[in-house]
Specification:
The chain is 28% helix and 10% strand. It is an alpha+beta fold. It has a 3-stranded antiparallel beta sheet with strand order 3-4-5, with helices on one face.
């Protein structure tokens, strides 16, 4: 699979990005405007949070699906084994740990701006006969939406007591129109060509 690296600032960025999506469903975006210092600060704050007992004060709301989801809460569709991860669903209207700074809010907003640009690129490169069926332009779908989610995932060390068949995150498909992943701190993400 040829997942393309696309330079965000390149004049050919929109073309290369959408071509990679059409061919593979994925793209790697480089030279984007989000500061690596901000990303690292957010990673550090959340690492401290996940390694504290404060996390249990923000347990997820089953109806709203916001807040802290403990280790072993989730398994991929079709898998009976729980993933080896814990995570926090952050929505601007939802729970947010008072122990953290406003950096997560800042990163969330910058990710929305980036996503809006990527959706504009997709919108521009969508064939006319398909675009005519959109109820609204793609970038407008996320503006003011309460459904935009920042999912902060933490993968604790694997223990001998964990099930041998369990993995960090089992094979899955995302259900969203678009998912933007920040580069991980460790390798491991795999893309499968079906």
């Amino acid at each position: 699979m040829n997942v393309r690296k696309v330079k965000y600032t390149d004049i050919e960025g929109p073309h290369n990005f959408t071509r990679s999506l059409r061919q593979t469903g994925f793209s790697i975006v480089t030279d984007h405007p989000i500061s690596i210092d901000l990303i690292n600060k957010v990673y550090k704050e959340w690492d401290i949070f996940f390694n504290s007992n404060h996390k249990t004060l923000y347990s997820f709301d089953k109806k709203k699906q916001d807040g802290y989801f403990p280790f072993g809460t989730e398994n991929a569709k079709g898998s009976s084994v729980k993933d080896l991860k814990e995570f926090f669903h952050y929505y601007p209207w939802g729970k947010f740990p008072k122990e953290l700074s406003t950096s997560t809010h800042e990163l969330y907003n910058e990710l929305l701006d980036l996503t809006s640009t990527l959706l504009e690129w997709i919108n521009e490169k969508t064939p006319k006969q398909v675009k005519e069926k959109f109820s609204i332009p793609l970038p407008d779908m996320i503006k003011g939406s309460n459904a935009n989610l920042l999912r902060v995932i933490h993968y604790p060390p694997i223990l001998d007591s964990d099930k041998k068949e369990a993995i960090r995150a089992a094979a899955h498909e995302d259900i969203n129109l678009i998912t933007v992943l920040i580069a991980g701190t460790e390798p491991g993400l795999q893309v499968k060509d079906i």
